[in-house]
Amino acid sequence: MTAPPEDPFGFAPDDDAPIPYMARTREYYQAIGYDTPYRWAHYVDAPFQPLRKPLAQSRLAIVTTAAPFDPTKGDQGPGATYNGGAKFYSVYDGDSSKPHDLRISHIAYDRVHTSAEDSGTWFPLPNLQRLARERRIGEVAPRFFGAPTNRSHRVTLDTDAPEILARCRADQVHAAVLVPNCPVCHQTISLVARHLEANGISTVVMGCAKDIVEHAAVPRFLFSDFPLGNSAGKPHDPKSQAFTLELALRVLETAPGPQTTVHSPLRWSADASWKRDYNNVAMLSAEELARRRREFDAQKEIARGLRESAA
Q1: How confident is the model over 32-56, as pLDDT tens digits?
Q2: Residue 216 burial by CB count (10 A; 0-12/13-18/19+): exposed, middle or buried?
Q3: Helix (H) or strand (E) holding 203
Q4: CA distance 207 to 209
Q5: CB 181 within 8 A of CB 122
Q6: What's 186's DSSP letter?
Q7: Is the dihedral of CA 42, 45, 46, 51 positive or negative?
Q8: 21, 31, 178, 207: which is deepest, by most CB within 10 A?
Q9: DSSP 65
């Protein structure tokens, strides 16, 4: 980004830094009327499982927080508003050999600066299959796994992470690539990565919320400074998506120990002003905050009903 004329040192703007998602989220929910601050998962160390085999001999699985498209659950298309009805509440899996339509309308990705048109930005299965054909990796696991975006640490730790581990073991997975989208997704995926790693499966998280992932202390993390919803690369940019996955695999191969973070050199744009927008209460009017509270409450009711009916 070109420095303003008044800056003789060529410094970047002060806000051209990773977005503080934990602070933004806390301030946002307080501003719309929720008084109890959310406690983000926090660890000061992390498990670490070196690769048991070279990548060219390893079986890799994807863990995603995206949801299978269900036409009965309302608008889930590009640019759809937050859709609590499209959430899922238990671990699912899908056949890696088949095409899949996964969407992210059920989570709080950045709806201002990305439109969720290209699933390659959040679900890198086609690129992983390409790397298997090119023998960069041994093979893609027969299934990929969906991790519910759960605000409950206990449910993630006691139910969802062990279930994903059991399915990975059943598929004889050596390593996993985990791809979150929204802020809570990043926490969920971080907890799953820690559980897999502690039980012998090497992991790398590809994500955009640096503070949340590092607060949870994961083994390996590729950070892309992109709007939420683009952890696997830029939309409609195959080179960016291929580069991002390749860089994640290099982190998987070469991390010297736990809590290794690599910052991707790719930039979203030369203008970093997009970082000011996400859930920034300083840029929202009282009327807009009230409207968002009403919408959030309505979606919570929809999600609660679906969760109860599924129980």
Answers
A1: 888 788 899 999 999 999 999 999 9
A2: buried
A3: strand 202-207
A4: 6
A5: yes
A6: H
A7: positive
A8: 178
A9: -
CB atoms within 10 A of CB 159: 15
* Listed residue (124, 125, 123, 119) closest to 78, CA to CA: 119
Residue length of the chain:
311
Q: Locate tokens 């907890």: which residue?
A: 191
Q: Is 79 helix (H, G, I), strand (E, B) or coil?
A: coil
Could you read off the pLDDT of 201-230 as tens digits, one per residue? 999 999 999 999 999 999 999 999 999 999
Closest C-alpha among 104, 139, 136, 137 to residue 120: 104
| Positive/negative CA dihedral, 241, 214, 252, 49 | negative
Q: Could you identify the residue written with the tokens 């990305």?
A: 114
Query: Does residue 4 carry a pLDDT above 70?
Result: no
212's enclosing H/E stretch is helix 210-216
**Hey, how many other C-beta atoms are within 10 angstroms of the C-beta on 1?**
12
- Burial status of residue 71 (CB atoms within 10 A of its CB: 0-12, 13-18, 19 or more): exposed
Write out the H or E segment, with its range, that includes residue 205.
strand 202-207
Residue 223 φ/ψ, nearest 5 degrees: -95, 120
Q: How far apart are CA 216 and CA 43, in angstroms?
A: 5
Cβ contacts of residue 43 below 8 Å, gap of 6+?
194, 216, 217
User: In terms of C-beta distances under 8 Å and separation of at least 24 residues, what long-range contacts does 16-19 make, across chains too?
Assistant: 16/272, 16/275, 17/275, 18/210, 18/211, 18/223, 18/225, 19/209, 19/211, 19/275, 19/278
